[in-house]
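2024-03-11 09:14:02 INFO worker-7 job=invfold-0412 stage=load source=structure_tokens
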């Protein structure tokens, strides 16, 4: 369905929202509602439909952020981290929910953290997967790429850092070359991922905007102690983008936090350690 978002501080936009949950009303009454926040920036909800397995323990709310998927494609400047956070709050309010569990992955994790800090009374529980508390993740990502990446991977990553993908085909080539960095499984198995489909699920324009306009000016490092909701921090031990050190940093400073590091896993934990990954989240939010 489409939800019309009308805010005083941003242009009106219609965002695509998908809800999954139990059909029995009695079962749904005492169930938490979990928002699944997509990453990128530029990913739509369909990239995260593997999270649908969590509907056994919670009602799930997926959405396509501004400029992504089936949501409105307005000005790229509207696709900011601030608007992402405020749109999540607008969706929660539209659905009439008092409190929500927020599950964010990668860039979605950074937005989830920002949401929980801005709206602490609205968050029941928080899951931060493959995330970081500040823009400093870029420094470690570039260092990791120098250490572990091939010349081809280092070269094409420049299009990411500079926000200069010119087409979906260029983004597809980026995914093809860097997939072994994102997934441990991809290094030892034949590539069965439908990369054309993955490319189509990303807005390369929004991805470019994120890196050109520096979405990454955020820094929550000194306010992590303010988080009071139970928080689950998840990290792949071999994550090159959001190094495991950032997860450890967050877990050490967030008061009611739990840290789970997945061995033999990189940024794509749900691909490398799917069963363990979703079970850990289900146990936490269920």
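2024-03-11 09:14:09 INFO worker-7 stage=emit residues=286
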């Amino acid at each position: 369905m489409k939800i019309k978002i009308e805010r005083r501080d941003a242009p009106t936009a219609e965002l695509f929202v998908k809800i999954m949950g139990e059909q029995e009303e009695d079962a749904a009454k005492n169930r938490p509602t979990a928002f699944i926040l997509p990453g990128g920036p530029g990913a739509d909800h369909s990239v995260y439909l593997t999270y649908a397995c969590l509907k056994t323990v919670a009602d799930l709310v997926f959405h396509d952020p501004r400029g992504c998927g089936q949501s409105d494609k307005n000005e790229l400047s509207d696709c900011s981290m601030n608007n992402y956070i405020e749109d999540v709050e607008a969706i929660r309010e539209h659905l009439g929910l008092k409190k929500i569990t927020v599950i964010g992955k990668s860039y979605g994790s950074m937005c989830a953290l920002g949401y929980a800090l801005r709206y602490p009374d609205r968050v029941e529980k928080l899951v931060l997967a493959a995330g970081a508390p500040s823009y400093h993740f870029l420094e470690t990502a570039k260092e990791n790429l120098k250490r572990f990446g091939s010349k081809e991977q280092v070269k094409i990553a420049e299009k990411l850092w500079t926000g200069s993908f010119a087409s979906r085909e260029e983004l597809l080539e980026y995914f093809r070359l860097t997939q072994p960095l994102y997934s441990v499984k991809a290094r030892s198995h034949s590539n069965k991922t439908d990369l054309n489909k993955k490319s189509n699920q990303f807005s390369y324009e929004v991805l470019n905007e994120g890196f050109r306009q520096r979405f990454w000016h955020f820094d929550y490092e000194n306010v992590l102690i303010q988080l009071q909701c139970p928080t689950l921090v998840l990290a792949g031990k071999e994550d090159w983008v959001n190094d495991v050190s950032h997860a450890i940093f967050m877990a050490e400073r967030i008061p009611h936090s739990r840290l789970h590091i997945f061995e033999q896993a990189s940024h794509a934990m749900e691909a490398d350690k799917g069963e363990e990954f979703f079970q850990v989240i289900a146990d936490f939010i269920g």
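2024-03-11 09:14:09 INFO worker-7 stage=report msg="Strands lie at 2-7, 10-20, 33-37, 59-63, 100-105, 123-129, 231-236, 257-262."
2024-03-11 09:14:10 INFO worker-7 job finished
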